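Write out the bound-state structure for zinc ion.
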Amino acid sequence: MHPRPVAWLVGPALLIGSLGPLAAPGRSAEATLMGGQGQAPAPALAAIDPITGPRSRLGRDWIGARPIEPDTAILVMAGHADSQGMAGSGTSGAAVAAGAAPMFEGISDELYWNMVVAETVVALGQQRGLRISYYRPPFRSISDGDDPSTNWSVGRQHAASGGYALEIHFDAWGPSGIGSGLIPPLHRPFGRLDESLAEAFGGYPMAFRGGLGGPRRGIALLEVGKLEGPLERSLRNPATRGDTVIAIANRIVAALEAGLGRGPTTALPLSPPRDGVGNAPPGKGLQASSGGE
Ligand SMILES: [Zn+2]
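---
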């Protein structure tokens, strides 16, 4: 990483090229960060979060107590990145369902926001010194879920080798959506990372829908929120997009830090990065080949 004060704000937009900037030029990242969204999770989760909306009301029937090594490699993926144009392409979001143009032609709005959030999480996490990387499948449509290049396959391998695989999702709009929460990986006893993400976003039952394909392969699914209402509007509005994405990413990274036992997060990386964290040698973490696009 280069010591770019707002690189983690600008970078993700560059990563996805023509998908467009996260925020209008000149927008103050610092003002955003001072908003406090990345602080430790609220002690009691409200049914409706001010940013991400309704949380899952399905009971959480698990506790993540297994300790996690602080240098655990975290792999972040965008949900549905390999399943466009087929079943399982992700929610359209309420706006597109109501007739709005998709954020990017040819992909679901869910994938668009999954990518933006996932890439921002990785950029911010790397700046914070986490061993975190991003995986992006080579094709948007891979019919065989067990093809070696799918999120499922790469995430499964990462988890099997002791890492933490996290796939970012937004939940369906309308009555079919449930809300924010972590659907935990099922390949081994639930750990502190599962716990901290569930404390920050809410939790789903361990056997949600009989155990989804990702969790059965060891991949944690994080439902950020239902893609509708104030959350979707604040993402779609260019004036609030950057703030919203950063608030979500900050919350995820803070939860990862807590789950890794790196101590309570008391502050967020303002510009310039404190203690040269942004200068950390890139060799420290697992750098997916797509991580530096
Ligand atoms: Zn999804």
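---
The longest strand covers residues 164-171.
The beta strands are 48-49, 53-54, 74-78, 132-135, 164-171, 181-183, 219-226.
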